[in-house]
Design brief:
- By secondary structure, the chain is α+β, with helices and mostly antiparallel strands.
- The chain has a single domain, classed as 3-Layer(aba) Sandwich (Glutaredoxin).
- The strands form two sheets. The protein has a seven-stranded mixed β-sheet. The chain has a two-stranded antiparallel ribbon with strand order 6-7.
- β1 and β2 form a beta hairpin.
- The longest helix is centred in the first third of the chain and has 39 residues.
- It is globular.
Length: 218
């Protein structure tokens, strides 16, 4: 009979590897999009983003309708006027998600009063288990301003597509339908007050680096 612990460790390793590969692919897409936008700006009479210092527009993000941890329905319009740090993950995540949210929380602490202009947000990729009540309990372990968002499977699919996020269920080898992991990319997006993409961070970016990138914008 196979050892359950070894089976779980093996499954975790596979999920972590897949998540890393997915994140690298998504980051490549972002980098290429930035390069294309900058090239376009340089070809428009010197009025491009390199000359102005403004981040190029990258096609990441868009309209969404989700439910926050209090059970309130929200849309992207509710966050206009503030920067958003958006991370896609789930509450049953064994390591990547809590680590990323811890670094986001550290960045918020470093920003101090300026942090009032930033909304750190966790969008679940596991809506079947991550109800508003579950998210409320989970985000309470991090910075008090972290917002947890969930929705129907279709709503999550739509917002994940808008942010170019990959996710997939990894079933238990034992066949338990309730015992599964979620393979997902681990990119943190910084969105501007107008809802447009500004910058991105990886799940290995520490809080100090994140805060240093955000502070000059506030």
């Amino acid at each position: 009979m196979p050892d359950k612990t070894n089976s779980t460790v093996s499954r975790l390793r596979k999920v972590r590897l897949a998540a890393v590969i997915a994140s690298v692919v998504i980051l490549m897409v972002v980098v290429v999009a930035v390069a294309v936008e900058r090239a376009g700006g340089l070809g428009s009479g010197g009025g491009g983003t390199q000359a102005t210092g403004v981040s190029p527009e990258v096609k990441i993000g868009g309209p969404f309708t989700l439910t926050d941890q209090t059970g309130k329905q929200v849309t992207e319009a509710d966050f206009r006027g503030k920067y958003m740090l958006i991370f896609f993950g789930y509450t049953y995540c064994p390591d990547v998600c809590p680590t990323s949210l811890t670094q986001i929380s550290a960045a918020m602490d470093i920003l101090g009063d300026k942090a009032k202009q930033v909304v750190p947000t966790l969008v679940t990729v596991d809506p079947d288990r991550d109800t508003p009540a579950v998210l409320k309990d989970y985000v309470a372990h991090f910075h008090p301003s972290v917002v947890g968002l969930t929705g129907t499977p279709e709503q999550i699919k739509q917002v994940a597509k808008a942010y170019r996020v990959y996710y997939a269920k990894v079933p238990s080898e034992a066949g338990n339908k309730d015992d599964y992991l979620m393979d997902h990319s681990a990119v943190i997006y910084l969105m501007g007050p107008d809802g447009k993409f500004v910058a991105h961070f990886t799940n290995t970016t520490d809080g100090e680096t994140m805060a240093a990138k955000i502070a000059p914008l506030l």
